[in-house]
Amino acid sequence: AQTVTQSQPEMSVQEAETVTLSCTYDTSESDYYLFWYKQPPSRQMILVIRQEAYKQQNATENRFSVNFQKAAKSFSLKISDSQLGDAAMYFCAYRRTQMDSNYQLIWGAGTKLIIKP
Amino acid sequence: EAQVTQNPRYLITVTGKKLTVTCSQNMNHEYMSWYRQDPGLGLRQIYYSMNVEVTDKGDVPEGYKVSRKEKRNFPLILESPSPNQTSLYFCASSPGQAHPGPQHFGDGTRLSIL
After folding, report:
1. pLDDT band (50, 70, 90) for residue B97
2. Closest alpha carbon to B89 in B114, B67, B60
3. Which of A86, A68, A89, A88 is nearest to A24 (CA)?
4. Chain A residues inside the 8 Å CB shell of B38
5. What span, in angstroms and rounded, lies between the C-alpha atoms of A34 and A22?
6. Quick one: residue B30, left, alpha or beta (phi over 0 = left, psi -120 to 50 = alpha)?
7. Residue A50 and residue B100: Cβ atoms within 8 Å?
8. How far apart are CA A52 and CA A45, in angstroms?
9. Which residues of A touch B90 (CB under 8 A)?
10. CA within 20 to 30 Å of A100's CA: A37, A84, A86, A117, which one?
């Protein structure tokens, strides 16, 4: 069974600095998707960034980028120029690509990100 | 506006009193799913549905029921709620057919079972 591990329950960073959130996963599949979701205090689940495993290029969305290391099964999220609005819980999630499978997302436990003004 | 709508957003109730959390999506999505979120555990899937009249268990289905009589609706039913079902619940949908895009989430329902 696939598992996702986020080893940092909480991280803090000074506003305008860069922070990296860690995520590792375990799977025997060769093709899959990885996601980072943000959950602010409003409880909404907001997609931050996604990565297809077959793509070697790391995904980037504005100030958010990932470091995808397929062999190491690592998928870290880097937030540059941190802003107060980035404060939230961040979840790493995995999904298989098999067409006949449950499109279930497997989630990590989350990392609470605190931004210091 | 494309959205997944859950109701209620908050509910406090007592052990054994049947309740239903509704979920509706307006995107004509085939796939719908329910998750529960607990501290330190992330989200875990309760049930999912690949299409109308097709439902199956996720990782933590005990104590829950679902139905999918129409494409847009996927209610979560707690026949006899217990305190261990106190949690934050999310409904999600996606187009299906191995769509790689993100699942669309509702705003969550906070359930407290006393």
Report:
1. low
2. B60
3. A68
4. none
5. 13
6. alpha
7. yes
8. 20
9. 45
10. A37
